């Protein structure tokens, strides 16, 4: 159990560093709805202790718009928090009990906690628009070869 908890803390620290690194390297105009969702949910998952709309204010403070252009990040973040009024119990369940990854050949694997990008693909705003695209399966990824198309294991 001690090893598992250490691994969980390491993975959590890695994901937090990844989210912070992703967010600091992206301009406000280039940040997508998906990135706003991932950033916001990771802040909540890591134990954000203030009012949730303050996360949206934090996004505005970190990523100011250029030339006085309106910053869509606050609106996207607030749309996510509004959608959480419908999806909050499901998100809590996915974080605590995980979700299933379905392989192309039908096998199912339980992943705990459910990855944030998968959660953001499932939850929607009040207009039923998801925040991220559904994650691709392994066979859809570029550069992977399929044994159906080529002879596998032969030299």
What does this structure look like?
- With 155 residues, the protein is mainly alpha-helical.
- It has one domain (2-135).
- It contains five helices and two strands.
- It has helices at residues 2-24, 33-45, 53-62, 72-97, 116-122; strands at residues 99-102, 108-111.
- Strands 1-2 form a two-stranded antiparallel ribbon.
- Helix 1 (2-24) runs antiparallel to helix 2, helix 2 (33-45) packs across helix 4 (72-97) and helix 3 (53-62) packs across helix 4.
- The radius of gyration is 18 Å and the shape is globular.
- The protein starts with a helix and ends in a 33-residue tail after the last helix.
- Residues 1-28 form the signal peptide.
- This is Saposin B-type domain-containing protein.
- Keywords: Signal.
């Amino acid at each position: 159990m001690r090893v598992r908890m250490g691994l969980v803390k390491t993975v959590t620290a890695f994901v937090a560093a990844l989210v912070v690194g992703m967010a600091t390297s992206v301009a406000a105009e280039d940040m997508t709805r998906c990135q706003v969702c991932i950033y916001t949910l990771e802040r909540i998952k890591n134990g954000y202790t203030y009012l949730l709309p303050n996360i949206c204010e934090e996004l505005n403070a970190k990523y100011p718009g250029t030339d006085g252009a309106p910053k869509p990040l606050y609106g996207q973040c607030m749309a996510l928090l509004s959608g959480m009024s419908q999806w909050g119990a499901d998100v809590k369940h996915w974080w605590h009990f995980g979700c299933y990854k379905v392989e192309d050949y039908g096998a199912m694997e339980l992943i705990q906690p459910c990855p944030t990008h998968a959660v953001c693909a499932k939850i929607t705003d009040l207009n039923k628009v998801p925040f991220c695209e559904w994650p691709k399966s392994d066979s859809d990824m570029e550069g992977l070869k399929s044994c159906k198309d080529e002879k596998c294991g032969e030299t």
